[in-house]
Amino acid sequence: MVAVGMQEAVDGIVSGRAARRGDLRRIRSSVRNAAADNRNERRRQRALRTRMGRQARAALLAGRAALKGDVGSFRQEAATTMSALRRARQAQTRDLGASLTREAQASHRRVRGSLAQMEGRRLGEAARWRSHRLSRLRAMVRDVHALRQDAQSVLAMARASRREGAHQVSQQLGREVAAVRSAVSQMRASAEQERSAAQADLAQARNLWRRLPSLVVPAPARQVEPGAEPAREEPDESLVSRIFDDVANHPDGVRARELETRLAANRFQMMRALRTLLEEGKVRREEGVYFAR
Question: Which of 238, 245, 280, 276 minimizes the C-alpha distance to 259?
Answer without folding.
Answer: 245
